[in-house]
Write a structure and sequence with these properties.
about 250 residues; alpha+beta; 2 domains; two-stranded antiparallel ribbon; 8 helices; 10 strands; binds zinc ion
């Protein structure tokens, strides 16, 4: 099967494509209404294989802005749309944010550096979005600690801090965690052994408080984490070990 290499929208929006200002993703309408149409199946394959497409954004008749790379990051059967993420500065809704952050550089009169900085900020954000998508999908959109399934409440936590913003954030360096467990993991309230067993900071184990502490934190002690189905997506034991040592040193 040949996979599509590009997607195209027109300024008249015949496919009713739209931008979501919150997620900063393009909602790209299916071809027709049949989810199993070859074009739609092809785009779904690109999503599964995490391969980029060229995105042609029509500015006016016969004039397109070509954007590379764009990634299909979501598939909404009910709305008959794909979600598409791109880092292209001309198309990022948070471009003005990057410009604000770049004001100091502009004041220094360095336009080139400012432009570079804005692009880099967008690239970093794109990578974070893609990382979240991949990690949540690997964990079947559940918290690895408590199995909470509410997507808006889930984050992709880094096991070891991802220092290189342009590096490819890998799923084995991630944990799908709900907001409270993400904060508890980052705050060293909870640790995970290289074998994937949750440990609660000892002083916290003996504290008395309401149900959140009792069930949400203390109850996790010595419980195994919920792992992704695919072995290749499992958290990397070496990275867990590194992080667990940090956790042990924190108390
Ligand atoms: Zn949780």
């Amino acid at each position: 099967m040949e996979l599509p290499i590009s997607i195209t929208t027109s300024p008249k929006n015949p496919y009713q494509d739209s931008f979501d200002p919150v997620t900063r993703e393009l909602h790209y309408r299916y071809f027709g209404r049949d989810p199993d149409h070859t074009d739609n199946v092809g785009l779904r394959r690109l999503m599964a294989e995490q391969r980029p497409v060229i995105y042609f954004h029509a500015i006016q008749k016969g004039m397109y802005l070509s954007i590379w790379p764009a990634y299909i990051v979501g598939d909404d059967l009910n709305a008959l749309t794909f979600r598409v993420a791109t880092d292209h500065p001309a198309f990022a809704h948070d471009q003005w944010m990057a410009q604000q952050e770049g004001v100091a550089l502009a004041a220094a009169g360095d336009r080139e550096l400012e432009r570079h900085y804005a692009t880099r900020t967008n690239v970093t954000r794109l990578h974070q979005r893609l990382f979240r998508n991949r990690v949540l999908r690997a964990y079947q959109t559940r918290c690895a600690f408590c199995r909470l399934r509410q997507e808006p409440l889930l984050d992709a936590a880094h096991i070891v801090a991802d220092k290189d913003p342009t590096g490819n954030p890998a799923v084995p360096n991630g944990l799908s965690l709900c907001k409270i467990h993400h904060a508890a993991f980052d705050g060293m309230f909870l640790g995970v052994t290289p074998k994937g067993v949750i440990h609660v900071r000892p002083d916290l184990l003996h504290e008395k408080d309401g149900p959140m502490l009792r069930h949400g934190l203390q109850g996790l002690h010595e419980q195994p984490i919920h792992r992704p189905r695919r072995a290749a997506d499992h958290p990397d034991p070496d990275r867990l070990d590194l992080r667990y040592r940090e956790f042990r040193q924190a108390y």
